[in-house]
Specification:
heterodimer, A: Aldehyde Oxidoreductase, domain 4, Aldehyde Oxidoreductase, domain 4, seven-stranded mixed β-sheet, globular, B: 159 residues, alpha+beta, five-stranded mixed β-sheet, 33% helix, iron-sulfur (chain B), 2Fe-2S_ferredoxin-type (chain B), metal-binding (chain B)
């Protein structure tokens, strides 16, 4: 059983020893007073350990260090307590356990109570466990946990909070496991625990004996649940955390083996689609030809439900044909007659007034108002879910970022006890805010109940754009005053179509409201105050939100308010710099509150050669963003010359081209720098999209866009040919958020570059929104287009 | 029910289904081949991109009755077999550059990339930045830059 081994580059037993501290001399030898954490060994056939999610005591956050600005601003609410901390705090008293099981083959297994939608958390979480457990990364198997109602607030994937909130619990559980393995090995080998070390999935003795974790999995198991104190590995001993690792699901993704919800084979769950109304949230009055459509080839069921008329059949292709054949008399929706112009007028009326305090003589002001049109947070995987609803139970499969809320609400809708509803979280094909809601799961449950059969429900792409959730249209009114080269006041009034936060984060906030430094604000205002940070000292600063019009299907889109709010602010910064005759980078640098933000700004200015000479019609833009305990800076170069904006790519909307992006990011501790780079890259693509090309046109109560060649998310022809992402050396011992971080900075920098290249500050986004439509809108009846038949001729 | 026979990933298959059903649904719903993904159903997002006799095409836009018994359809599942290996060189490039984020578009991206390289070579040249600009496949995670790098890297590995 015991084998010889030659290497001694290993992990001494002291750190993370789960046994009595008399054996764990590691602390004393290093002379530190490291914090102790509490974990558990659970009764199980093989070693099973656990730790509480959110169990780490939070150190109060330092107010941002003051920069040498003449007129500092008081810290805003988000600087004292931000959304990340709120979500983590909310978990404290109620959180339950995250469990790791070690199998006899030496693999560690855990079910992450979060949704993986591309952000790489299965990989980073596996790395955290592998690091603390001294196990090779490929021996850690991560799955996504089913909805666990006992977790209450702690199964919500949002706010870029996953790694921030699970970093310590995962390490604590892994450290408990390692301690138990050491103790079991000590009994086998007859040597003191303190003399043993661990490395690469094995316990090593000074004499050179080696015991694999798999061999110890049963011996290390417990017969009763026991609390155990542990200390964690010193970060200077990290071998895996901080190194770039490939995604754990990369091979599955590139071979087509990765299973998304619609790839699952659930018995008798046949393809199902819904014929949807021509206007937003319209209703079914009657259907003229139910029997005729039921008799179409492949179709098994056609029923009316609350969102439209559902069809179930052998293939999705036949469902599309059936949806198109239905003759439905539609009632009005919730936004009848609404258009971009009517919504803009409502926003104008709802805008809160500016309150400029008395100012010295000679004070001047920058006044600006920005419009951000509706945008789609659609993922490439459309809304979809599988439901099998029986008389007394229900089972749901879907990519859900708030699966507990889904489970509770579906149970309520079906009149079943929560315990009778099982919700499985599947791998998600992107989210961007969409999967915070369980629209498809809810609809699938309703259809399955009415049909009395299992259903595999998928939305058509056209419905996903037209009836799916949107990032609400908003405006930002900004007034900044200045005199003698200094900014005296900064006021921003953000006015938005109401954002729906009814996905569970509301429960978190309601429960935690008393802790918040925001007074008695409405829910969305609270979200706004928790997420918005002005990174600059701009004197007396107020940023307020007001909302109007609940007639739309909305939700947060990656980075919620920040891309719009910060884009407006950075554009005003450029305008202030121009009017005061200052350099935009130098002014930002001087007014920056946070030294980490100044460091990333300096980095992109240096690497991106800020201020280099460029041809007319091209320019640089620079911006920072601070959120989620992380900072990012972007330097963007854009080409707005006619030969570029008019470039021809068949069937493409081209326009200005971002030719270069330099991004520097500091998340405190980058667990997987390669994954972090990927998140920055994605956020940059999003920022380019919402600045230049991605918007929805609202007309007569419906959105015009109905396909990916109509809603212009960034494509290859708009991708920057040059892209450099710099991950700054770690500045902390805890990972900040990353998934949404890049979007605001990228949007702002692209907008600033566009303004400097064209000589005019852009005020409407996307900047091409008022251009003639680049497509012919699809009809609204039938709601989805016919499937083409010319695919053979278009083969390349 | 009408029968439709064609070659799928090197083997003759027969599907019992109405002839106007688009191949994407025959693959996914009838034959259980789920590598090609649905993203639009109208041939623009290209998430379902596969190969028809070696050329990139979108199965969402081809009625199954348009296929002849000797038509060779290759999906991502069958790509490695075309080079007699566990992975196609383009997939290896994808893996080494860790291109995928959510992964949903990736089968289509890889199938497009392989066809683009072949097409350039048939024209007697190598793939260029200008070619990359014309690739239409949507990646909603926005990992476009790594896709560009991987296509060029994969092209170098395709000998």
């Amino acid at each position: 059983m015991a084998r010889r081994h030659p290497l001694r580059d290993d992990h001494p037993s002291g750190s993370g020893d789960g046994t009595a501290r008399s054996e764990g001399e590691g602390d004393a030898t290093r002379g530190t007073s490291r914090r102790r954490f509490l974990g558990y060994v659970l009764a199980a056939p093989t070693l099973t350990v656990a730790a509480q999610l959110g169990a780490e005591a939070l150190a109060p956050r330092q107010a941002a260090a003051a920069a040498p600005a003449l007129i500092p601003s008081l810290p805003g609410p988000a600087e004292l307590l931000d959304l990340n901390e709120l979500l983590t705090l909310a978990a404290l008293p109620t959180s339950h356990l995250i469990t790791i099981r070690l199998d006899e083959d030496g693999t560690a297994h855990f079910a992450l109570p979060r949704a993986e939608v591309g952000q790489g958390i299965t990989t980073s979480s596996a790395m955290i466990v592998a690091e603390e457990l001294d196990l090779p990364l490929d021996k850690v198997k991560v799955t996504l946990a089913d909805a666990r109602p006992e977790l209450l607030f702690n199964q919500l994937t949002g706010g870029s909070n996953t790694t921030y909130s699970t970093y310590h619990p995962l390490r604590v559980a892994a450290a408990v496991a390692r301690g138990r393995l050491l103790r079991a090995a000590s009994l086998v080998l007859g040597e003191a625990v303190g003399t043993l070390t661990t490395k690469a999935g094995a316990v090593l003795s000074p004499a050179g004996a080696l015991l694999g974790y798999g061999e110890l999995a049963v011996k290390a198991a417990a017969v009763s649940d026991t609390a155990v104190e542990v200390t964690l590995k010193d970060s200077d001993r990290f071998r895996l955390i901080g190194t770039g690792q490939r995604r754990v699901d990369a091979l599955e993704a590139i071979t087509g083996r990765k299973k998304f919800a619609m790839d699952l084979q659930v018995p008798d769950a046949l393809p199902t689609m819904v014929c949807r109304p021509p206007t937003i949230n319209g209703t079914v009055r009657s259907v003229a030809n139910l029997a005729e459509v039921r008799a179409m080839p492949g179709i098994t069921d056609v029923v009316t439900v609350s969102t439209g008329v559902a069809v179930r059949g052998r293939t999705f292709g036949q469902c599309i044909d059936a949806v198109r054949a239905l003759r439905v008399d539609w009632g009005p929706g919730t936004a009848e007659g609404a258009s971009d112009a009517t919504v803009l007028a409502k926003l104008r009326r709802a805008e809160l007034p500016l309150v400029v305090p008395p100012l010295p003589l000679l004070t001047k002001a920058v006044d600006a108002r920005f419009t951000f049109h509706f945008a789609s947070n659609a993922a490439l995987e459309t809304n979809c879910a599988i439901a099998d609803v029986r008389e007394d139970s229900a089972e749901i499969w879907g990519s859900l970022k708030a699966p507990i809320v889904a489970r509770e609400q579906i149970a309520l809708k079906l009149g079943l006890p929560v315990s009778a509803v099982r919700v499985h979280v599947t791998e998600g094909g992107g989210s961007f805010g969409r999967k915070l809601f369980h629209d498809a799961a809810d609809e699938a449950a309703e259809i399955s109940r009415v049909m009395g059969k299992p259903v595999k429900l998928m939305w058509h792409r056209t419905d996903d754009f037209r009836q799916g959730r949107t990032h609400p249209m908003s405006t930002s009114r900004v007034r900044a005053t200045y005199t003698l080269g200094e900014v005296l006041t900064y006021e921003q009034r953000h006015t938005s179509v109401a954002t729906d936060f009814g996905h569970g984060i509301g429960e978190v906030l309601t429960a935690e409201a008393a802790r918040l430094p925001v007074g008695d604000l409405a829910f969305s205002e609270t979200m706004f105050q928790l997420t918005q940070i002005s990174p600059y000292h701009l004197g007396v600063t107020t940023q307020l939100l007001s909302e109007t019009d609940k007639g739309f299907n909305t939700g947060s889109m990656r980075n919620i308010y920040s891309p719009n709010v910060r884009c407006a602010q950075e554009l005003v910064m450029d305008e202030l710099a121009r009017r005061m005759g200052q350099d935009g980078y130098a002014m930002r640098r001087r007014l920056m509150k946070d030294p980490r933000a100044r460091a990333v700004l300096d980095k992109v200015a240096e690497v991106g050669e800020w201020g280099r000479t460029m041809p007319a019609g091209t320019a640089q833009g620079i911006a920072v963003h601070t959120e989620y305990h992380s900072v990012v800076a972007m330097l963007v170069e854009i080409d707005c010359r006619p030969e570029t904006t008019g470039r021809k790519i068949p069937g493409a909307v081209t326009g200005p081209r971002v030719t270069r992006v330099v991004c520097a990011v500091d998340v405190g501790l980058a667990v997987n720098p390669r994954g972090l780079e990927a998140q920055m890259m994605g956020g940059i693509s999003d920022g380019i999209a919402i600045t230049l090309t991605s918007g929805l046109h609202l007309r007569d109560g419906h959105f015009l866009e109905g396909s990916w060649d109509q809603y212009f998310y960034t494509r290859q022809w708009n991708t920057p040919p040059e892209l450099e992402i710099i991950v700054m050396p770690s500045t902390g011992d805890k990972p900040g958020g990353a998934g949404e971080l890049a979007v605001a900075g990228a949007m702002a920098a692209v907008a600033c570059a566009y303004g400097r290249a064209t000589g005019t500050m852009p005020t409407v986004f996307p900047v091409n929104h008022a251009d003639p439509l680049a497509f012919t809108p699809l009809p609204t009846v039938p709601p989805v287009p016919a499937s083409p038949t010319d695919g053979r001729d278009r083969a390349l | 029910m009408p029968q439709h026979t064609f070659i799928l990933n090197g083997k003759a298959v027969t599907a019992d289904v109405e002839g106007d059903v688009r191949l994407l649904w025959v693959l996914r719903d009838v034959l259980g081949v789920t590598g090609p993904k649905y993203g639009c159903g109208v041939g623009v997002c290209r998430a379902c991109t596969s190969h028809l006799n070696g050329k990139a095409f979108t199965p969402c836009a081809v009625p199954v009755e348009d296929l002849a018994p000797n038509d060779e359809v290759t999906t991502i599942e069958g790509l490695p077999d075309t080079v007699g290996s566990d992975l196609h060189p383009m997939q290896e490039a994808w893996l080494d550059l860790d291109v995928a984020q959510c992964g949903y578009c990736q089968p289509g991206q890889i199938m497009t990339a392989v066809a683009e390289v072949r097409r350039a070579r048939e024209a007697g040249r190598e793939i260029t930045e200008a070619d990359l600009d014309t690739i239409r496949n949507i990646c909603r995670c926005g990992t476009y830059h790594r896709i560009r790098q991987a296509v060029l890297d994969g092209a170098r590995r395709m000998t």
